[in-house]
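Pipeline run #58 for the internal structure catalog. This entry was flagged by the ingest filter as a single-chain record with no existing model, so it goes straight to prediction. Upstream metadata was stripped on purpose; only the residue string is passed forward. Reviewer on rotation: M.T. Logging verbosity set to normal.
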Amino acid sequence: MGLTIKEIDKGIAFRLGDTIYLHKNLKNYPLLRKVLINHELKHTDSYTYNDFKLDSIGTDLSLVKSDYYKFLFTNKGAWKQLLPYLVIDGKFHIDLTLTILYFAAIILFIFIWSLI
């Protein structure tokens, strides 16, 4: 079974199972769209350490970072990419990478705060 691409109006790009979801306005950013599709194709069908590493390091996105942030802050709904959860097709989904990173940031903040 191959992957399908579905356009959405929230978030930027992510993969759930055999579907890659892309913000509908990415067609105005062809290089960014291509890099994001290639990034999502590297993900596995189930969440693994390699998926975490791919998202947390994000080296394949380094060439298009300025376009990514421009897109993020100039397209309605794109900012939802920064949330650790998303509702797609009526289903609630948790982004484990963001959840782990946000949790680590909170723990680090509490640790530093306790030193003050």
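catalog note: The two ends are 55 Å apart (CA to CA).
catalog note: The chain has a mean pLDDT of 89.
status: ready for reviewer M.T.
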